[in-house]
Specification:
By secondary structure, this protein is mostly beta strands. The chain has seven helices and 52 strands.
């Protein structure tokens, strides 16, 4: 590996020493500098682009070229005649200025289209082939090489620090715009152009009256040979692992034409390749983004899903995945677009975690928990979308989506305090979302936007826990001689004479919610407009549950709890929670020079009511004035600073107010508080972004401060000398605070891309432990760096290093806890002899606590692939995962009630052989 790094450094040094610069200024006929003009240097012998660049705000440009070579300098800018000039370089830099003349014929567009990067207004266009070296197979591999584009740890695309909300292919949404499914499946050889759409709005009528600086979308333009033909690939593989045989089958087929599209994705494997995790599926395709800003109300939706663990190659020791996905679109005419998808996914996995827990409460014994989990989730998803554009003044959208799931989980647990436990959970939840919107331009000054959303959700988890018990030591004078669960069993009202505590919990949570609003935009002039809004949120949530014990003889016992801190504890719930918000507001948007100001407010009439057991009623009615303000400074077309302030009201969900006892886990029992009040928050944020193609830099930074009043927190009471706790909700008497800051700077030096980033967060919360006020403060900060090459005809290497520091202080703990995590990594890829692809990635991680190393691990993956040439149909791959046979890795978790180090056992060494056929 050291030799590879040394060779890469020598190659870069030799290229740098052989190059000079052509510099100058581009202006129009009256002397004004032209920003973002395209400037290219064509090698007259090789007949290809040797260098390219853009002018900055002052019209400056520079090109890196070779000595003693003749170049054709071409300069293009929409609305001006193209400039073509021949320059012969010598051994020194060249300085030359240019003046462009106006021309409405738009000359030079063909030349512009061949440039690696072009800018047209708010759209950045990348020529994909300019960033490929032949080792790419997926869209993800190309995106990672584009300046200003990142793939985060969750697999989502970010541009200039902003998450991409939609992926389109030739203007058609790809699986409702899900970026992760697109990056992992669209073949790289089908991609011609990648268009980054900044200030994105999918309703053209609203683009001129809203601030969309935080919205980004990507459109993938296919190569001409991929249109009106089926394309894609089919991959099959097999291999060997220590305890099992390996298999993989992944067909990915695509068809695009102007009238209709079809995308088919299949996946069956046990190699740990998880395209869509359970977490991805629960948020996939059902969240319809509003086209107007939030109006200040946040209401939580009651959920009761089972404790399903997310599984991937870095935290599971067994993964089996099955996926079938169909996406379609159909445009019978220019006014109507129909689209949708059907997805079925089955994820089955096994996990083992050893958790070393240090409880903050000094009277609670520390614990070591060894947990082995087997879980399966079967999910069906569907979505149907209709977009009808009668004309520019009328657009109607309708969306219908649903998710149906059958999932179950079994845990075998050994706790140093509670001995052996078995847990079983299963659920069959479903969710149906509907969204209707209509946008109407009544005149040049008036625009109406109607949006209506409806949610129907039903969750029904059933939980069983079985704990060992010795009925003969229940009343020992020394509590240490009792079973760890005995005192908790007494307070829960359980029968302690059985050999096992068999506990069961049945729950049902139903939600029916309607969200409707009407926006009216009145355009005062070219610089300002008014936005009047009125709407309502109507929500109904029902919560029913029953907690009971199954005795050794098979009969049921309904316990009678006596738990400190919980008034009149019950073991059943019959709760209905109704919420209504009627609101109206106004916003004023004004452009003044480089600034855009948007002050506004909404006035809300709130009514919340919950009914417990049909006889207990709690109601709260009030009116609230919520101000908001946003200011944008657009220094340049590619540089801006955004400030926003927002006041919001946060309402909890039915789970937090249902006052009957619920078994969240074998060691955690919970009862809600029917008299909870709403919380309110103040949020201030400042965002800066700059994307400078002139000098190859991109920078973005974000600062956010949030203060929450009457935050819903908990009072957690531990049984003496036990890890079993009961908790209830309450409104915090003190304000919770959170401050976060994030920054990243990237710089391109010819074929070298570098980046440096940092983050900082401070969080202060107030909880109650054993009914005593508890203050918890945590500070996290980190630094991440990257340097990598981007050669098109040479091996590439990428070096990364990150370090994170986590400090936690708690009023119940005498000393602070300090943790440090170091993560260096190296990626290598090479395309050799136009036929062999070699890729490799190695990562190392070390966890240190209070200056001592507690865990370190390393993971190495590699792939060797062969195809006859770039256009070959067949490709053969030898893939090795976890070649060092690393058994486990650790993570640090700093919580409100405990600090823990979790050791996760991962997939063993996998070696597989794969064959891919490209259509």
């Amino acid at each position: 590996m050291k030799k590879i790094i040394f060779i890469a450094i020598l190659m870069v040094a030799s290229i740098t020493s052989a190059q000079i610069e052509i510099k100058g200024v581009v202006k129009d006929s009256i002397g004004n500098p032209l920003e973002m003009a395209n400037v290219i240097a064509l090698d007259t012998v090789a007949k290809k682009i040797a260098s390219y660049g853009f002018t900055d705000a002052n019209g400056n440009f520079k090109l890196d070229v070779n000595r003693n070579t003749v170049y054709n300098i071409k300069i293009s800018y929409i609305g001006f005649k193209e400039i073509s000039d021949f320059i012969k370089t010598a051994s020194s830099n060249v300085n030359k200025n240019y003046t462009m003349l106006e021309d409405n014929m738009l000359d030079g567009i063909e030349i512009v289209s061949k440039m690696p990067v072009t800018v047209k207004g708010d759209t950045i266009i990348y020529n994909a082939d300019s960033f490929k070296n032949g080792s790419e197979r997926k869209l993800k591999d190309v995106l990672e090489k584009l300046p200003g584009v990142e793939i985060n740890d969750a697999g989502q695309i970010e541009v200039e620090g902003k998450a991409v909300e939609k992926i389109m292919v030739d203007g058609k949404e790809f699986f409702s715009g899900d970026s992760k499914l697109a990056t992992e499946n669209i073949p790289s050889n089908a991609v011609d152009k990648i268009q980054v759409l900044r200030n994105y709005s999918n309703v053209s009528q609203l683009s001129g009256v809203q601030n969309n600086q935080d919205r980004v979308a990507i459109n993938i333009k296919l190569k001409e040979g991929k249109k009106n033909f089926w394309f894609g690939d089919i991959t099959a593989g097999a291999g060997n692992a220590p305890d099992t045989g390996l298999y993989l089958f992944q067909p990915k087929l695509f068809y695009y034409s102007p009238k209709y599209t079809i995308n088919v994705i299949g996946d069956v494997n046990n190699l740990g390749d998880v395209v869509l995790s359970r977490r991805d599926l629960r948020s996939f395709g059902g969240n319809f983004q509003s086209q107007s800003p939030s109006n200040g109300t946040n209401i939580s939706i009651g959920e009761a899903g089972i404790g399903f663990l997310t599984a991937n190659a870095n935290n599971a020791n067994r993964i089996e995945t099955k996926l079938s996905a169909l996406n379609f679109s159909y445009s019978p005419n220019k006014k109507l677009d129909l689209s949708g998808f059907l997805i079925w996914s089955s994820n089955s996995n096994g996990q083992r975690n050893i958790n070393t827990i240090d409880y903050i409460n000094p009277n609670t014994p520390d614990d070591v928990v060894d947990n082995t989990t087997d879980q399966t989730s079967n999910t069906g998803l569907f979505r149907f979308t209709t977009v009808y554009k009668k004309d520019f003044n009328n657009q109607l959208n309708y969306n219908l989506s649903g998710r149906f799931t059958n999932e179950f989980r079994v845990d075998n647990i050994n706790s140093r305090v509670l001995s052996d436990i078995t847990e079983t959970e299963n659920a069959t939840p479903y969710t149906i979302n509907q969204d209707f919107s209509y946008f109407y331009t009544a005149s040049e000054k008036s625009i109406f936007a109607l949006e209506v959303k409806h949610l129907l959700q039903d969750e029904d988890p059933f939980y069983i826990a079985s704990l060992e018990n010795d009925p003969n030591n229940n009343n020992e004078l020394d509590r240490n001689d009792r079973d760890g669960f005995d005192d908790a069993a007494a307070s829960l009202g359980l029968d302690r004479s059985n050999l096992f505590y068999n506990l069961e919990q049945d729950r049902r949570v139903k939600t029916n919610q309607l969200d409707a609003k009407l926006d009216y935009y009145y355009i005062l002039n070219s610089k300002s407009n008014l936005n009047f809004v009125g709407g309502t949120i109507l929500s109904n949530q029902n919560f029913n549950s029953r907690f009971f014990q199954i005795l050794d003889n098979g009969t049921q016992l309904n316990p009678t709890p006596t738990i400190n801190g919980i008034t009149d504890p019950q073991t059943t719930n019959d709760t209905e929670y109704n919420f209504a918000d009627f609101y109206a507001g106004v916003r004023y948007r004004l452009k003044a020079g480089i600034f855009t100001f948007t002050p506004g407010f909404t006035v809300h009439s709130y009514n919340s009511k919950n009914t417990q057991y049909g006889t207990e009623f709690f109601q709260d009615n009030f009116v609230r004035f919520l101000p908001e303000f946003q200011a944008i400074a657009q220094f340049k077309r590619s540089e801006s600073l955004r400030f926003s302030y927002r006041q919001q009201v946060n309402f909890t969900d039915v789970n937090q107010i249902a006052r009957g006892i619920v078994a969240n886990d074998y060691d955690s029992f919970f009862a809600g508080n029917a008299s909870l009040l709403n919380a309110s928050s103040h949020n201030v944020s400042l965002n800066y972004s700059s994307f400078n193609l002139f000098n190859g830099t991109n920078a973005f930074a974000r600062i956010n401060y949030n203060k929450t009043i009457d935050q819903v927190n908990r009072n957690t009471i531990f049984q003496p000398n036990s890890v079993v706790s009961t908790s209830t909700t309450l409104n915090s008497p003190l304000d919770n605070e959170n401050f976060t800051a994030f920054a990243n700077f990237g710089k391109r030096f010819r074929k070298i891309q570098t980046s440096l980033g940092g983050n900082f967060s401070y969080n202060k919360t107030y909880q109650f432990l054993n009914s005593l006020e508890n203050t918890n403060e945590s500070i996290s900060r980190g630094i991440n760096t990257r340097i990598g090459t981007n050669f098109t005809k040479a091996p590439n290497i990428s070096l990364r290093y990150s370090v994170s520091f986590q400090d936690q202080s708690n009023s119940s703990r005498a000393t602070d806890i300090k943790s440090v995590i170091h993560r260096p990594s190296i990626d290598f890829d090479a395309y050799i002899w136009d036929s062999v692809t070699l890729t490799s990635d190695y990562s190392f991680s070390e966890v240190r606590q209070n200056g001592n190393s507690t865990n370190n691990f390393s993971v190495w993956n590699a792939k060797l692939a062969y195809r006859k040439d770039r256009d070959a149909k067949w490709e053969y791959e030898l893939v090795g995962n976890n070649l060092l046979a690393t058994g486990s890795q650790a993570s640090v978790n700093q919580g409100i009630i405990s600090f823990s180090i979790n050791e996760r056992f991962i997939l063993p060494r996998f070696v597989s052989f794969r064959v891919r056929y490209s259509l």
